[in-house]
Specification:
It is a single chain. Helices cover about 25% and strands about 40% of the residues. It is of the alpha+beta class. It has one domain: Lrp/AsnC effector binding domain/regulation of amino acid metabolism (RAM) domain (Alpha-Beta Plaits, 2-Layer Sandwich).
Length: about 80
């Protein structure tokens, strides 16, 4: 299982609606509107990196009101 944070920028005033729409997508663990340079932070999971990419490109980026995304895969570093 691969998990990632997806940082989302939206059109002005669209963060809440975008977060609500994204939260309904299968594979999305959470979607919260935040303040700062990004408007919504999403945590998502998929079986592998390819499916994660498909989730982001085919579903998340298709939500109306999104202007830009940045996907940050979670890594597990051992000491």
């Amino acid at each position: 299982m691969v998990q990632a944070y997806i940082l989302v920028q939206t059109e002005v005033g669209k963060a809440a609606a975008v977060a609500t729409a994204i939260s309904q997508i299968t594979g999305v663990i959470s979607a919260e509107d935040v303040t700062g340079p990004y408007d919504v932070i999403v945590r998502a999971e998929a079986a592998d990196v390819d499916q994660l990419g498909q989730l982001v490109v085919a579903q998340v980026q298709g939500v109306s009101g999104i202007t830009r995304t940045l996907t940050c895969p979670v890594v597990h570093l051992s000491s």
